[in-house]
Amino acid sequence: QLQLVESGGGLVQPGGSLRLSCAASGFTLASYEIGWFRQAPGKEREGLSCMRRDGNTTTSADSVKGRFTISRDNAKNTMYLQMDSLKPEDTAIYYCAATRGFWYNCAEQFFASWGRGTQVTVSS
After folding, report:
1. Which one, of 119, 29, 34, 118, lies nearest residue 74 by Cα?
2. Number of helical H runs and strand E runs in the chain
3. 20, 49, 98, 118: which could join 8 in a potential S-S bond, CB 3.0 to 4.6 Å?
């Protein structure tokens, strides 16, 4: 059974850092394209950063460009989101996602498999 499980969320002060992990099971992550998304209360789900299977081609939303970095470790079947210089407006539930197909842009419509999410709260 294909499963994605996020971890690493929590409470952090503005300017701090967190690294989210997403462990895949039931499938080989190396064969999938991946992405990180978030949803704040009252807002639509937002695509943050997506990566091709080659591990080199990525795209990031302007809101997180230069602060968030997506990566993958195929040997561990895990993807990551390194988040630096966090701001209160980054508070949201963060989701990882994967697709056997291809994403045209970093949007949820292109991703079929999702984790349940992890809460990130940025507050002093």
Report:
1. 29
2. 0, 11
3. 20
Q: Report the chain's mean pLDDT, rounded to a whole number.
A: 96
Contacts of 44 (CB under 8 A, 6+ apart): none
Tokens 């230069």 sit on residue: 66
CB 113 within 8 A of CB 97: yes
Distance, CA of 49 to chain centre: 7
Could you tell me which residues come within 8 angstroms of residue 118 by beta carbon, excluding any fewer than 6 positions away? 6, 7, 8, 9, 20, 93, 94
pLDDT digits (tens, 9 = 90+) for 83-108: 999 999 999 999 999 999 988 899 99
What is the distance of C-alpha 17 from the center of its chain?
15
Give the whole-angstrom CA distance, residue 35 versus residue 48: 7
Which two tokens mark 58? 């990525």
